[in-house]
Specification:
Elements lengths: L24 E2 L11 E5 L21 H11 L4 E4 L4 H8 L6 E3 L4 E3 L8 E2 L6 H8 L9 E4 L3 E5 L7 H14 L5 E6 L2 E6 L4 H8 L9 E6 L5 H6 L6 E5 L8 E3 L2 H11 L10
Parallel strand pairs: 1-13, 2-3, 2-11, 3-4, 11-12, 12-13
Antiparallel strand pairs: 4-5, 5-6, 7-8, 8-10, 9-10
Helix pairs in contact: 1-7
């Protein structure tokens, strides 16, 4: 690995407020349709859960799993997590609960929580490519590798000075493999290299063709650049998008922080039209 890469100038945080985005409003309850007609689609990190220094440290606050389980009942099963994390990781984080989920930025999908059935779209990443990408972690202490099988994430939250060098190193490897069907996905202090054949949006489109999601009006809440593909398809699905922590193009409203999202979800249960339900 070329250590000169570390000498490159720092770049500001990749995720910044989109100045071109229109002014959005906080989210009133009335904007969301009745739960019996809705599909609730939720990003995890930075949306439902507070960001932490490392991926393993995230924590599900008391009450959130209960709220999600009650929303699952009230939507007749039409609540799904839509995450960059693998399904395996999602299940560990929310254990012992299982929720329908689109994982790995659209690479995996599971709908029925009492079933192992998973739609998997992503082939495993080529071993040699993964080995080369993994070597980028040697650029600096603090760079963490996350291997999802079909993709590899390089986390630099603990080594922010290495951001530019990581992206430069990934570019060099990609230049060597111009025909490889891979793409670089920038996230929050993470550079992920994944197969280019799927996105969160393709995962959500497929999810919305399946029962019990089919025919419902989705609302999706997400915080990151990787969520923008889903924001963009919500009008096609007669749905609504909401962002967290920043304004973004195409959203109907925004939340300041994950704690506001959690509070909002709990309030959805106050609807008197559902009063007889758990
Ligand atoms: O699509 P999401 O559900 O938001 O998942 C996005 C990525 O989340 C995780 O990384 C991020 O959260 C970590 C914990 O807060 C944080 O330490 C890291 O800097 C963030 O990038 C997860 O590890 C990734 O696999 C997801 O793609
Ligand atoms: Mg997120």
């Amino acid at each position: 690995m070329n250590e000169d890469l570390l000498e490159m100038p720092l770049e500001e945080d990749i995720i910044r407020e989109d100045d071109a985005a229109p002014e959005t409003v906080p989210v009133p309850r009335s904007l969301v349709p009745h739960l019996s007609e809705s599909a609730i689609l939720l990003d995890i990190d930075g949306t439902l859960l507070d960001l932490m220094p490392t991926p393993r440290e995230v924590w599900v606050p008391p009450g959130l799993a209960k709220t999600m389980n009650r929303l699952l009942v009230r939507t007749n099963g039409a609540l799904a997590l839509v995450s960059g994390r693998s399904l395996n990781d999602i299940d560990l984080i929310f254990a012992p609960d299982l929720f329908p989920a689109v994982g790995g930025h659209g690479a995996e999908m599971r709908i029925e929580t009492d079933s192992e059935a998973v739609a998997a779209h992503a082939p495993p990443m080529d071993k040699e490519l993964k080995r080369r990408l993994a070597a980028i972690a040697k650029l600096s202490p603090g760079i963490l590798l996350e291997d999802k099988g079909y993709s590899l994430a390089l986390h630099y939250r603990l080594a922010p000075h290495a951001e530019k060098a990581i992206y430069a190193a990934v570019s060099l490897i990609r230049a060597d493999l111009p025909n490889a069907p891979i793409e670089v996905l920038p996230g929050k202090c993470v550079c992920e290299i994944k197969h280019s054949g799927f996105t969160k949006a393709s995962g959500v489109r497929e999810l919305m063709t399946r029962e019990p999601f089919k025919g419902r009006r989705p609302f999706f809440i997400g915080d990151d650049v990787t969520d923008e593909s889903v924001f963009a398809i919500m009008p096609d699905l007669d749905g609504l998008a909401f962002s967290v922590g920043r304004r973004a193009k195409g959203v109907a409203g925004h939340f300041d922080a994950p704690s506001d999202v959690r509070e909002f979800l709990a309030h959805l249960l106050d609807d008197e039209r559902d009063a007889s339900l758990p």
